[in-house]
Amino acid sequence: VLERYAYLRAPYFRLDSETSGPWYRLHVRRQIPLEDAVWTGLVELLLLSLQALVESALGHAMKGAAFDADYPTPPHAGLYSDVFHAPVTFGRQVSSLAIPLRWLPLACPFADTAQHRAALERLEGAERNLCGPRFIAAQVERVLESASGALPTLDEVATRLRLSRRTLVRRLEASGTSFRQLADALRKRRAAALLSDPSLSVGEVATHLGFTDLANFGRAARRWFGASPRGVRSTREPAALRR
Does pTM top 0.70 for this prediction? Predict the structure, then answer.
C-alpha cells in the first residue's frame, strides 16, 4: 500500500522495494528537485514514520532493522540515536529502510479489514483522479515550478511523471492546454515578479528565466505585457503585472 499510494499524500517522493538476501528494502526516490536541507528534513520525517509503522506490528523497538540516508552526515546527527531505533548510514545512493524478511508476515494489532478495504477504495479513486485530465496540468506545473533557472523540457517532465512523451502530450491536450502554454505562463509569472525587483538588472532577470539572448527575452516581454522589459519596469504599477 505504501509503495503504490504514498505519493498521493506526498508527491515529492516515490517508494519502491527489493528483496536482497534476508532483507526487505523500501527505497525512497526523490521526484522533484528540493534544497538539500528541505530534502533531509523530509526524509527524516518519512523514515521515522516508517519506523513507527513497523514497530506497531512488532510491539517493540526495531533493533534488527537498518536505515540508509542519501545525504551527508548532518550537523545534528548526534540526535539520531535518540529518535531512530536502528543504525543510520549516511551518504548512501538512496535513502531506504531495511527490515528482516521474517517480519513481513507479522500482522498489525490495530488491523481492521473493513476500514482497510474502504481506505484502499478511496486511494484508488484518488489515483484515478490524479491521472485524469483535470490534474495532469497541475502535475506538470508542480514539476516546472520546482525548477530554478531554465525550465525542464517536455521529455524531462514526462520522465519525472513516469509517462511517455506522447501520453503526456495527449493528456494535456485532453485537459485543454499544452506543455508550451504551461511553461510560458510560468515564465510570465516569474518575469512579472523579477521585473518588480529593482535590485536585478534586466539581464539578470533574463538569466533567471532561462533566456540566453536578451532579444528573445524582449520579444517574450512584449508578447506577455505589451512592453519591453525596461518599459514594464519603468511603470510604477503596470497593469500588465497585475494580469
Answer: no
